[in-house]
Specification:
By secondary structure, the protein is α/β, with parallel strands linked by helices. The chain has 13 helices and 14 strands. It has helices at 11-23, 28-35, 39-51, 119-133, 170-177, 187-198, 256-259, 261-272, 279-287, 291-315, 325-329, 334-339, 360-374, and strands at 55-60, 72-76, 82-88, 92-99, 104-111, 141-148, 151-153, 156-159, 182-186, 205-210, 214-220, 223-224, 319-323, 350-353.
Length: 385
Amino acid sequence: MIQDKYVIRQQNESIVLKTIIENRTISRAEIANQVGLNKASVSSIVNDLLDKQIILETGIGSSGNSGGRKPISLEFNPASGMTLALDIGYNYVNYALAYLDGTFFIQEKLETSITKHNCIPHIIEIVNNLIQKMPKTHHGIIGMTIAIHGIVDHNHIVFTPSYNLDQLDLYLQLTNYFEFPIFLENEANLTALGEFTFFQSIDNIISISIHSGIGAGIIQNKKLLHGAHSQAGEMGHTILYPNGKLCSCGNHGCLEKYASNRAIYESFSQHFGLEKANSDNIVDAISNNDHYTTELLNAKTKELAVGINNLALLYDTQLIIVNSSIFLKLPQFLEPLKSALNSKFTREIDIIISESGDNATLYGGVALSVASFLNIESVQFAKIR
């Protein structure tokens, strides 16, 4: 069933396992009916999954009106392995050790400046500490996903506007150090994947990450879009103001130079003469009915709406999820954002604030590692939550 330690390969096994996960509890006979395999094939696959502790027999169901032997219920076993997820920001590392269903065993955040010189030592120290604390499981660590705030193409960092990790072969150095599979992915892509896998039961989602920059992860028909050069969703580098501020990408007037959290903090700091600002400073100012801060957020919300309008029309999504510490702490600004979307084409699109906040990216990291390990594309644990 498992050709190596980390990947369940055979297609029918993957179909059966996905069916078990998305039904929460199901019998062998019910699996056969749902997937169209004969009972003998399902029974053989189930026995292999049981041997590897990927699933468990959890009880005996009802025999129904026809009588006969009562069916044995099957469930996915999330405690059969652990996964690691790290979100590497320019000034922090957010990380988690989690079970295979996205349940965090440990989740912590380290506030520190990240550069090409200290990134790998930080990762190694964090991972080694997590390994020492992890519980014993049948498969151990099945993979680690690292979120990068920039463009990542097939585990290669192409562009990082807020730090210089594009000068570092992070994937090669980490794979030489750790035995388990390692995945590098764009932060916004992982945020969308985390929302899709663990929190939303729909097929088309755009998750917009607003931090130091602005990125969008796009799930279309249950699949994460990357594009030919892994640049799909780089909405922060769409042009808002021609001939505007110079951006590190080479363009002038990019959206993220105006409407990102970092842009808001810079304007706030300059106005109040602060060295550095964060979302808590913004919240305090709004709580004190500060006129400047209210006008600042209203203006930035309207600029953000331009980018969201363009993205919504390009991808015709069902749901847009805004992931931003400012919106999470000040949800009242979601209504001005919605009001600024005046097109008839955006009226049917629901817009919400991500409730998982900074951890949405970590959930996406877990989802990516687990999908690779189980060889299941587009599994949705959200369907059983």
